[in-house]
Write a structure and sequence with these properties.
Strand content of chain A: 25-35%
Low-confidence stretches of chain A: none
Largest sheet of chain A: 8 strands, mixed
Radius of gyration of chain A: 24 Å
Oligomer: homodimer
Number of strands of chain A: 18
CATH superfamily of the largest domain in chain A: Acetylglutamate kinase-like
CATH architecture of the largest domain in chain A: 3-Layer(aba) Sandwich
Distance between the termini of chain A: 32 Å
Structural class of chain A: alpha/beta
Helix content of chain A: 25-40%
Chain lengths: 417, 417
């Protein structure tokens, strides 16, 4: 009997009626002979409601207490879903993370899963029960509840699938898969039947936020086949259809290498670019610039250091647009004089566009096609950064949609697969 | 350093502002040198909201899952209260029942506490921390969450006070103590400074529902001094005032026996009376009548069987008014023909009035004063039932307020103490 893990997001669990709908889908799979573990998120809005109360009490609540508070949202979900399955005549049992137990470290609000005990769950599955486990949370070595951070239920689902040796982890969400790019920008965007783990990582981190990135890493590390699909379709469609719908994150690179060189176009609209000009080119300078930025908890994305001229160089990096002001302050107050830079320049209206694909490794000319396409559209490239399976460019934000559409067409993504 | 347990009801915890108020009160006690454990209820309305969702899913949800669901209400409360204490600069830590652990049996939705581990709590108190523990819930031997039923947080507080050997358990609620009777019925009703445990049991079970009855039993069994007082007064009143306010449930019978014979007048408006007429007077007949009633989960209160005449007797008992119809159906369908009764008669518009007091044991004439008073008011007594410290009468509901006021005056309750 094949074991599958189903994960349902907050929208799918958003009301008692929607929970009944989830129960019908789970029951259909169970009727078809699958063993099932379900990992639901908190009902949509619930986590925000709880955090909102905490912030009314104090602006920076203690992380341990925040986790005590926020973890209740998923506990409500698992209990209600168990009841909804009982109402359909199914045997089902719910567990909070600590009951399983899902062991984590003690990094409250951003904990990492260390181990998952399979004893209770195996016993229940063997007895024919559907097992429902809270996402987003576990318990540390001292018995404290620790949550995995926003979107952590995806990670819980994949980790549970790995621990229980499931055949597949199905992530039900409000989109029906991973697309070649955002369909709101390119109407010809096409759903991908499969993406590789590496591509999914790049697509997720570059702004196609279908799955929490840590869950993708987890799936990749343990080669757990993970499928993203929609919970909004009628739960009564044929099961065979559901088992092949959505987008499967696969670990069979070869399959994809036969296909198109480029899998998709990712983008991130809200970037900001900062350049430290006239920096003395000496060892340790990158750390002296970025150390204070990291200490201010600002995430840095692309980093470029130009060839030095006359012992001076320019150092450029990007940050999320919301951190732009803070970054400029840190550099102006703590860095500029200290390292003897000439000046600090910035641009908060830039966007990043990336072409992603494992096929890139064996195909030449991807970069030249990309740069030629942008040039033909008159789009100036501000920064370039590359990895094995992606090429990213920073451009003026006003050209972002144009760039994505042009690249989608240039790489023939509307027809490929 | 004296240890006290504070329990706060749902109204006291009803909003983030009220939670801040609770925190100020707790901080005041801590500043005065007390060690404190706080046991808060769920925010008012929260338990009903959760149970309401469960009922939307199915009418009779599984008790284990109901407990998974309902227990989240108190978990939210403890986390928010810990934050509110942090905001006042206090070290505080919250625990769910399973974290302490508070061990219960597996009677979901009506579990009983079996033991409480003091290790974590002692360590925290010794370190100067305020400890906050969820009321209403514990964990069974298999790691399932089990709740103690409505009002169970009172029981949790007293049980924790017992386990931790506290000096006193303070139950903060929306009334400022136990009164000689309901002040809404008798404006001269007077707050009692002390009541004995037995009196409190009778007062609580007879409708003066200030404390959950099981918590009173618990306090009685372990002789835990328990004080009922108001959380609605300004938390900034002098601490000395607070330590002697409210009503203390005491275990010093002698003190009270010197006082008035009667401590208070309890009443229950919503009673119904059922009489099975012409019952053959043979062994086992009471069980044959009440067995089916108990099986239908109907609680029976007063029971009277008259002297038999010609081998026939009348059997009368009372039930909560809401169970009247169901009781009549059970008797008519399952009992009447089976035992060969002549007929079933009922009256759903009766009320019970009781005089309560440990002093009754050593005073004669309480019953005669009671019956004479009611007679002078022209109130007919339908049933009488007595225990060591109370006399209850059943009367027509339209006379209830009149009876309570007349008895309150006859026993001089507005002046005594």
């Amino acid at each position: 009997m094949a074991l599958v893990v189903h994960k349902y997001g907050g929208t799918s669990m958003g009301s008692t009626d929607r929970i009944k709908n989830v129960a019908r889908r789970v029951a259909k799979w169970h009727d078809a002979g699958y063993q099932i573990i379900v990992v639901p998120s908190a009902m949509s809005g619930e986590t925000n409601r709880l955090i909102g109360m905490a912030r009314e009490i104090m602006p920076q609540p203690d992380p341990r207490e925040l986790d005590m508070l926020a973890s209740t949202g998923e506990q409500v979900s698992v209990a209600l879903l168990a009841m909804a399955l009982h109402a359909l005549g199914k045997e089902a049992v719910s567990y909070a993370g600590w009951q399983v137990a899902i062991r984590t470290d003690s990094a409250f609000t951003k904990a990492r899963i260390q181990s998952i005990d399979d004893v209770k769950v195996t016993r229940d599955l063997d007895a024919g029960r559907i097992v429902i486990i809270t996402g987003f949370q576990g318990v540390d070595g001292d018995g404290n509840i620790a949550t995995l951070g926003r979107g952590g239920s995806d990670t819980s689902a994949v980790a549970i699938a790995v621990a229980m040796n499931a055949k597949e982890c199905l992530i039900y969400t409000d989109v029906d898969g991973v697309y070649t790019t955002d369909p709101r920008v390119v109407s010809e965007a096409r759903r991908l039947n499969t993406v590789t783990f590496e591509e999914m990582l790049e697509m997720a981190s570059l702004g196609s936020k279908v799955l929490q990135i840590r869950s993708v890493e987890f799936a990749g590390n343990y080669k757990m086949p993970t499928r993203v699909l929609s919970s909004l379709t009628d739960p009564m469609i044929a099961l065979e259809e559901e088992t092949v719908s959505g987008t499967l994150i696969s670990f069979e690179e070869d399959t994809n290498m036969e296909q198109a060189a480029i899998t998709g176009i990712a983008f991130n609209r809200d970037e900001a670019k900062i350049t430290v000009l006239g920096v003395p080119d000496r060892p340790g300078i990158a750390f002296q610039i970025l150390g204070p930025v990291a200490e201010a908890n600002i995430e840095v994305d692309m980093i470029i250091q130009n060839q030095s001229v006359d012992g001076k160089t320019d150092f450029t990096f990007t940050v999320p647009r919301g951190e732009y002001q803070k970054s400029m302050e840190v550099l102006t107050n703590s860095v500029k004089a200290h390292i003897g830079a000439a000046s600090i320049a910035g641009d908060a209206k830039v966007s990043k566009v990336s072409v992603v694909g494992v096929g890139m490794r064996s195909h030449v000319g991807i970069a030249s096609t990309m740069f030629r396409t942008l040039s033909e559209e008159g789009i100036n490239i501000l920064m370039i950064s590359t990895s094995e399976i992606k090429i990213s460019v920073l451009i003026d934000e006003k050209y972002m949609e144009l760039a994505v559409r042009a690249l989608h067409k240039a790489f023939d993504l509307e027809n490929a697969d």
